[in-house]
From TrEMBL:
This is Isomerase/hydrolase. The keyword Iron-sulfur does not apply. Keywords: Hydrolase, Isomerase, Metal-binding. PANTHER family: ACYLPYRUVASE, ACYLPYRUVASE FAHD1, MITOCHONDRIAL. InterPro entries: Fumarylacetoacetase-like_C, Fumarylacetoacetase_C_sf. The keyword Nucleotide-binding does not apply. Residues 18-214 form the Fumarylacetoacetase-like C-terminal domain. GO terms for molecular function: acetylpyruvate hydrolase activity; isomerase activity; metal ion binding. It comes from Mixta theicola. Gene3D superfamilies: Fumarylacetoacetase-like, C-terminal domain (3.90.850.10).
Amino acid sequence: MYQHRNWQGALLDFPASKVVCVGSNYAKHIKEMGSATPQEPVIFIKPETALCDLRQPLSIPRDMGAVHYEVEMAILIGSTLKQASEAHVGQAIAGYGIALDLTLRDIQAGLKKAGQPWEKAKGFDNSCPLSGFIPVNQFAGDPQQCELKLVVNGEVRQQGSTADMITPVLPLLAYMSKYFTLHAGDVILTGTPEGVGPLHTGDKLEASLAGHGISTRVL
């Protein structure tokens, strides 16, 4: 069973809960997907059962078409946010980490074409591999100005900066809290830069945020 941990692997006293995600939050990723830039953030939710430990080998579906990686900065919520101001949001962030927003891309394409919700493509079991979290007071530098990178089999596939988010962290969380109360233990995924692509059995991955790296592989 998944439990939140810090970057060193120690358990954190936060319950595992929902994951609230934003799509289309980096302009170059929007372009590579052939999508239109949204007028406001595109929000979707992954259930608790999507959470798994990024440090462990990844188990992906075998019979549902292509499974794509999307590396993202993850945020751990430390206190309740409801109809929150940006100032309140800043005080409620407990830590920063790395996530993979795994996506059943063929299924998502069909759902988009039919105008249906994305949950089957985004919220399946183990679709949110998650690192431990670096506490806010230990995170060096500005989380809104840091490199986000994914290397697959020794090749850089995704490399961007959190500075390129269309909707930055504080206004993004404030926006989310208008619709969903965010509780301690909730996780926010903040969008992915360009370079997404399929995973295959045996792939070796290294994801990093602001120089903090974590490795895993696909079973």
